[in-house]
């Protein structure tokens, strides 16, 4: 019974509980069994991965309450060490085929007028030609209430999903209010009867369809869809894709196999991304620590991302100066033979490492 529970799929606000840690309503995904029964109101994951990050697994729960666990010795062993009785070999179940959103419904939302609140904000950063390019390239839709729709389209051109997010048109920030939750196109289509209840969400990277059209471009991977769009507006020579969330670093990343990829995690997700991406050594993904090294105290407090830095450059009138390559991690610098020998010979103790900005040759 080690795989008896899973996070409850989103089926509207009623499927999300109050987080036992941050006490915010409609943001807690509980673990449920195959029948949909909640294991315990404290067992699950908070959607606020940065500000709360609460995640209690069924394994954690049964460690606290061993009397409730079924007498199965395999609970006490990690999955990679578990074994099954030597009976007949059972072939793994084939991957479920992906379900797609209807093309006609997707096309009807791909329009510039009326403009979503997101596009209204982008108008403060880019000219009309750039906005049209971004909408066409990334297939950004709009709802009747002017929320943005970020469609996830795979390399075959099929639309896997559409995430609906509402933004403040003046600040560009997502409206984080219980009355305006992040929604999904398939959820709305199921409610209206345009999709069957059996339709299942199978996500891919945001912008994944562009991998086929730009086979030689360096891929830059970020967390949020809005971040990818803004970065593509400022630095179109690179291909910007988004995972859709801090923890969304699973199988969907395998679409990047064979590509040169530089990841730009949000400033509060650097350690998480570095650790998780090491679990996929077959991918050529380098994690940039540019923000970690150069961030101001204000940027750290707000959990800034690379788009925030680009916007700051634009508003200040300064030229964009962001390296599209990772600055060497501290451990990589210290492990260089010349540096290690110098530290040993002089008996040095490293207290900090600071990036020295480039200066013009004419500066004194």
Description of the structure:
The protein is built from 13 helices and twelve strands. It is an alpha/beta fold and 364 residues long. It folds into three domains: 6-77, no CATH class; 98-204, no CATH class; 207-328, 3-Layer(aba) Sandwich (Dna Topoisomerase Vi A Subunit, Chain: A, domain 2), CATH 3.40.1360. The strands form three sheets. Strands 1-2-3-4 form a four-stranded antiparallel sheet. Strand 9, helix 7 (225-234) and strand 10 (239-242) form a beta-alpha-beta unit. Helix 7 packs across helix 11 (306-316). The longest helix has 11 residues, at 128-138. Mean pLDDT is 81; it is low at 71-95 and 360-364.
Largest sheet: 4 strands, antiparallel
Task: Assign the structural class, choosing from mainly alpha, mainly beta, alpha/beta, alpha+beta, or little secondary structure.
Answer: alpha/beta
β-strand percent reads: 5-15%
In what order do the strands lie side by side in the largest sheet? 1-2-3-4
Total of helices = 13
């Amino acid at each position: 019974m080690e795989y008896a529970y899973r996070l409850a799929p989103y089926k509207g606000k009623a499927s999300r509980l109050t987080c036992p840690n941050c006490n915010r309503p409609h943001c807690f995904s509980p673990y449920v069994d195959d029948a949909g029964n909640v294991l315990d109101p404290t067992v699950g994951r908070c959607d606020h991965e940065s500000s709360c990050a609460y995640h209690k697994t069924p394994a954690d729960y049964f460690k606290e309450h061993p009397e409730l666990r079924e007498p199965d010795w395999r609970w006490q062993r990690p999955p990679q060490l578990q074994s099954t009785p030597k009976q007949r070999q059972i072939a793994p179940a084939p991957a479920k085929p992906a379900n797609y959103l209807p093309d006609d419904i997707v096309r009807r939302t791909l329009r510039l007028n009326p403009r979503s609140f997101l596009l209204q904000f982008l108008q403060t950063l880019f000219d009309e030609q750039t906005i049209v390019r971004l909408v066409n390239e990334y297939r950004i839709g709009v709802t009747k209430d002017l929320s943005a729709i970020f469609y996830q389209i795979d390399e075959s051109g099929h639309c896997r999903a559409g995430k609906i997010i509402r933004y403040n048109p003046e600040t560009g920030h997502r409206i984080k209010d219980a009355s305006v939750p992040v929604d999904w196109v398939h959820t709305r289509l199921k409610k209206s009867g345009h999709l069957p209840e059996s339709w299942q969400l199978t996500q891919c990277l945001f912008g994944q369809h562009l991998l086929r059209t730009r086979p030689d471009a360096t891929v830059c991977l970020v967390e949020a869809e809005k971040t990818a769009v803004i970065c593509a507006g400022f630095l179109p020579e690179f291909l910007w894709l988004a995972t859709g969330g801090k923890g969304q670093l699973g199988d969907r990343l395998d679409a990047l196999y064979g590509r040169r990829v530089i990841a730009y995690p949000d400033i509060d997700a650097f350690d998480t991304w570095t650790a998780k991406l090491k679990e996929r050594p077959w991918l050529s993904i380098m994690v940039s620590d540019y923000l970690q090294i150069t961030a101001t105290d204000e940027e750290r407090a707000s959990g800034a991302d690379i788009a925030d830095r680009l916007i700051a450059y634009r508003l200040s009138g300064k030229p964009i100066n962001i390296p599209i390559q990772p600055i060497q991690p501290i451990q990589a610098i210290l492990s260089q033979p010349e540096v290690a020998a110098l530290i040993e010979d002089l008996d040095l103790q490293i207290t900090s490492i600071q990036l020295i900005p480039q200066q013009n040759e004419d500066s004194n």
